[in-house]
Amino acid sequence: MKKLIYTAFLLFTLVSCDKWFDVEPKGEGASGNKLFNNDASFRDYMNGIYAGLSDPDLYGGNLTLGGIEFLAQTFVPYAGAEAWTRMDFDSDMARDIARKSYDGLYAAIYRCNDLLRLFDRNPDVNFVAGSREMMIAETRALRAFLHFELWRLFSPAYAVDASAARIPWVGSIEGPDETMTSAQLLERILSELDSALEQLALYDPVVTGVGYDEMSLLGTSPADRLWKLNYYAAAVVKAQVLMSRGATADYREAYTLLASVIDQGGYEFVRTVSDTDYSFSREFIFALPSTEKGFCALSEELFDPQGKGVVLSSQIRIDDLSPDDRRRNWIDGDNTMRTKFAPTSKIDLWETVPVIPMVKLGEVYLLAAEAAARSEQLAAGVSLYNDFMTQRNSKSMVLAQDASQAQLLEALDLQYRYEFMGEGVRYHYCKRLNQTLAAYDGTTISEVGKKSLPIVQ
Amino acid sequence: MSDADALPLVIVDGHSESIERLHDFDMQRIESVTLLKNASATALLGVRAGQGAIVIRTQTPDPHRLQLTYNFDGMFQKASLRHFDLMDATRKLDWEQRMGAYEGNTALHDQRLEDVKTHGSTDWLDMPVQTTFSHRHRISVDGGDSSLRYRGVLYVNPVKGVMKGSQRKSYGASAFIGYTTRSLQISNELSVDMVDANESTAGSIFQWAQMNPYYVAADGRGVPYDILGSGTFSEQDSPLYEMSLNSFAEDKISRVNNNFTIRWQIDKHFSIAGQFNLTHDYDRRSVFVSPSSLVYQNYTADQTEQIGSYQILRNQLKSYQERIWADYNLTRNRHALRASLGMEIHSSTYTDNSFRGTGISSDHMDYVSFAQYYAEERPQGQELSERVLSGYGTVSWSFDDRLYVDLAGRLDKSSRLAPEKRTAGSYGLTARYDLRKSLFAGSELFGALSLSAGYGATAGYQFDYAAVNPLYAYDFDNPYLNGMGSGDYSEGLVALNLRNIYNPLLKWKTTRSAHVAVDGRIATVDLSLKYYHSRSGNLMTVESQPSALGSEFRYTNHGAIRNSGVEFSVVAGLLRNRNGVDLTLFANGIANRSRIVELPDYSAGLYNSRIFEQGSNSGMVEGDVADGIYVLPSAGIDPDSGRELFYLKDGSVSDTPQSDDRVCMGSATPKLRGRFGATAAWRNIDLAVVFAYSLRGTYYDLYTQQAVDWAGVDVNVPTSALDKWSPDNREAAFQGVDNPSHYASSRFVSKRNTLSLASLRVGYAFPKRIAAAMRMQGLKVSLTCDDLWYVSSVKTPRSLYYPYATSFILSLQATF
Fold first, then answer.
1. pTM score
2. pLDDT for residue A334
3. What's the number of CA atoms in the CB half-sphere (13 Å) around residue B575?
4. Peptide bond into A25 cis (omega under 30)
5. CATH architecture of the domain with range A20-450
């Protein structure tokens, strides 16, 4: 009798461990419990987060060529985009862009948090040594970058109002969304980037020069790190955050960081203009793959006279660049910018798509020169600017070595109009410095730093 | 709110079975069927019985010498096609003309009128239906003595449906063997059931109702025309042509079930028992669409590889269940105690998959191997599992045969619950007190009187796996996978995406119910009256959240529905063996009221706007009934446009209403529904009549809306379409033929009362000596008529898809 009860009890306890209940349905996708038992799944999920950022609602359009770039007054807007371009952020287009980018960026943050949760939950998974640390650090850096992107879109500039509390920090999938002032948020972002950089410096192939096992972790060779927020890209993001705060000490720290990227990163400017790489993708430090046809199709749709017929605004004067400047190749005779993001192969039209630049070498030089100029290292700043202009084949525009800070800053300001055409960078620069801008139609947009996108729920 | 798994749990002899099995259940095996709705009753069955339970007990053979029983049922079935009320050819043509269909083309009208004079009006409605005769045979052999009992059953039950081509043939066998000693009882029953079913390819009966009666269906040789009125305003594809093709949809089902039980009586107080059950159901469905079908009429020459289709769908359910329990009983003085403690494991896996071949060149190539290509869509498949580990216990105590108390509790840990809320508890308590002993002991008038009450809470499933678990899927279209650039960059990077929004903390739903009841017997009348109240809480809802948390909404447990009502039953034995006649009258009924007591606005808004877009008449609003009919208050038909106008919330009138302009018109559940009837016996003849009634249910007349209000001039219509709007009929009851709006409207809502003769049965048992003359121990015959007669305050067809059938069953039971 006792034996029988004992046997019965044993039978039940044998099956009562939790694993017996972890049966997942098949057919709809796999659930996290079993899927994340190998390092490749983590890598793949990470790829998925980056692929999601290429969506036309985010960097595949609205946050770059298709939206934010218009705010830099580079183009004459197409019908319907005028209010947006004049920074009327109550307009329908502004509200649409604002809602999609807010939701999309936070959805990406959610996935970063989900990935971090999965790392935490699956401590027994075998990783190629170092790759786990690299992926965790990269995910944290990406989460910090996404918060920074939200902050610079939806909050007033730091210089204008450091106490505005618009963007909550979300550090886990359950929330909560911690409301923070701009000052607190940037502090948080910086500390996250610091700890990520510390790990990336040790484990990122782009630093170590050694990729992880190709069999299990495709795409971790140093060259492939272009597609990820790698160590150098994270360093540049940190410099951007520091410069957004704008204290002299911040500029000094930013300069040191950016100078180290220039010195150690091994990145080079293009020396000839290749007819398969108009956007100079060799200079990219961090880039996203465009969705199939995406970025070219968007460029074609915008600049095709039969399409939206967008042309360059009068704020873009080609003669601001010296006659030999390589960037003149981006601009076409019909006063458009069709070439910069044209298909990279003439044979397989539309199938070879340019990538979406996120961080590139030109920005590192311009940021470094500015950071130097604003942290009592003017000579270093002038040298960096002059290096940059020489590399762009615009030697005629180099400054005298004893140029004043104002001269250097003015020269840098001019370069922001041309270096990042179509990339959505200049608007953030103008906003950071709370500039007053001349709009495409000649009117004035004052105090850009006070304008921020509305949070549409 | 999700209605996932709104089906009740089916328990047959202690183990669960799929609800599909009920469809083909061998009725002769059934000893009793109980429907459990109260949480105090379902608590013992736990989370799987959250939607109620159907508990079936089958007969076990009695010990007697070998006995052979033969049952024969012959069934006539006839489709009921009342209330379609369609126009005949002449009226339809006349109506079309009035609607202006022949303006500028009177020749077509004259031609059609001429055809009608020659061929008469075609009654399409009669074509797809048939009156059928089916016969069922069943042989059972059983017998045994005090230690060994056995039974074997063979049956075949081929049923033809009233739609042509529809049939369901079930056949099978089962074997029972039981062995009993003084302390041990062992039994095993194995049953194998097969079903071959064919679905009719005739489509819905509504489709036939819409066929214009002036078309001739077939040529002189009886070959159906394919497209009728080709090129005219009323071009129609002929369903008769479609039905004449070799297309089919068939199911081959096989089901095996083995049920083993063992009981060990340790002493007179204590016993241990076990049950082990294995079930395997397999269904292979084949659907052939002939290449000659009209669905391919617009395919071009370069699409031939998509023409013709043969699809194979397979599904399989495997489950096992094991249960071990111990019983204890004790009687001391006036106390009696019974207690039971058990554990149960249930595990089931459901899989299905399907693929389709296309490129079939002939109507007669009706097998998958004739397909030349795979269909464009990907093969489909899924696998769903359920694993439940449960512990349960019951205690019953009675005192002096007048107070009875039952307590039941159960804990279930289930794979279908959220990973972080995986163990759900249920409990129930009922008590009954016999008043007769205390109050009317010895009374002749009061045969019985007892009071009972119960309270319970049962957990229940309410969501799918994806609502509580993250699902990740590979993205085959992303640029990382397809490779970027060349040279330096690797290709073939794979991207995984999170696909769903989920909440691992979501709870099961909990239904708490309480009831009080009085049962009594006064003279020869049995009375019972019960009041119940139940509240289903923690129902799954959707609520908005800051999108900074990753999505705009999340799943929550913030819904609740309340139900309360009264059930009554009266059984009056009017005559008891007076002059050999027995007569009993009975009536029962239930009046239920439901209310949505909690529903977040976001959930309601989301659900109602989706329903509104679909044009459906359901909806949910906190404070309304749970199965309300939601419609737009009609302001009649616009005399200028012929489109319907509605009163909006702000009192204005418009033809472009919004979701929240809808109002609730009441519950679809009748205020009172039930059955009444009589049973009688006289000598060897017995008779049973059962009527079903329902009163004051809110009814939405979909037939009139679809067949009249939405109808264009190109299809046949009921005669009430004469009151459709036209420039000459500006004060119309129904919208015009062009561009009617498709909203759920108050014009089609009414309170409905129905009465039907649900069943009528006459039986006759042959006297023993006649049976004996035929070498039988007994012979019984009976005639049963189901759904013989039906009347409703709203005159519409009872079904628009498969016609309602009246059946006559002649049964014969011979025992040898």
1. 0.84
2. 82
3. 12
4. no
5. Alpha Horseshoe (1.25)
